[in-house]
């Protein structure tokens, strides 16, 4: 076990003790909690493999969409339970929002101890069907310790929420929907012309329909 895996295991010991029953109540706000961005910063990349729903290469965070990133290790039972929940959430979010949400999964393990072939088999067994690979420092950049941990990163690179737990798909969908609706509301307010009564009435209708 290398230092990264040891730190992840130590950090998750307390969190995983009750992870099977832990559910989140609304997403905490991290504001501008994210790493400093710079060109060529490898810490913001995941080395992806050729697997179901995944292509060999690299994926950088942030992307041009909201990114839902999950960190895991293959020997973790809670991580195995998390993948099908993420798959169900992804299906619903793709139906609602198309490509506005990108999913990414990154293992703390190294290719020297977990071969791409072994990761590919684990991924298919547990229902993964999106980009997956080896973390190259993304977890450290966003202050992630433990597994399974899921973070939501907006296109500006800000971490909107962060949870170390097994999340059910309904919770994931609700929290991602909330974030996308908040972004849409911010954009609407920025573009609205106060003198345009039609625009104001339309915005009010959307707010009334969506509820609090």
UniProtKB/TrEMBL annotation:
CDD domains: TlpA_like_family (cd02966). One of its GO terms (molecular function) is oxidoreductase activity. It comes from the Archaea. InterPro entries: Redoxin, Thioredoxin-like_sf, Thioredoxin_domain, Thioredoxin_ResA/DsbE_sf. SUPFAM superfamilies: Thioredoxin-like (SSF52833). This is TlpA family protein disulfide reductase. Residues 176-199 have a biased composition (Acidic residues). It comes from Haloterrigena salifodinae. Residues 23-181 form the Thioredoxin domain. Residues 172-212 are annotated as: Disordered. Pfam families: Redoxin.
């Amino acid at each position: 076990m290398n230092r990264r895996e040891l730190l992840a295991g130590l950090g998750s010991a307390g969190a995983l003790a009750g992870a099977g029953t832990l559910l989140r109540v609304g997403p905490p706000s991290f504001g501008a909690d994210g790493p400093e961005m710079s060109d060529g910063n490898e810490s913001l990349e995941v080395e992806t493999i050729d697997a179901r729903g995944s292509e060999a290469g690299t994926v950088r965070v942030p992307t041009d969409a909201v990114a839902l990133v999950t960190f895991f290790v293959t020997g973790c039972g809670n991580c195995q339970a998390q993948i099908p929940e993420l798959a169900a959430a992804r299906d619903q979010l793709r139906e609602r929002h198309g490509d506005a949400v990108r999913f990414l999964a990154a293992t703390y393990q190294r290719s020297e101890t977990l071969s791409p072939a072994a990761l590919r088999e684990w991924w298919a067994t547990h229902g993964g069907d999106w980009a997956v690979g080896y973390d190259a420092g993304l977890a450290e950049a966003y202050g992630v310790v433990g597994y399974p941990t899921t973070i939501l990163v907006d296109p500006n690179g800000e971490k909107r929420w962060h949870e170390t737990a097994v999340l059910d798909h309904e919770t994931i969908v609700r929290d991602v929907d909330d974030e996308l609706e908040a972004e849409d509301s911010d954009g609407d307010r920025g573009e609205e012309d106060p003198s345009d009564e039609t625009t104001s009435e339309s915005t009010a209708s959307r707010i009334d329909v969506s509820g609090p």
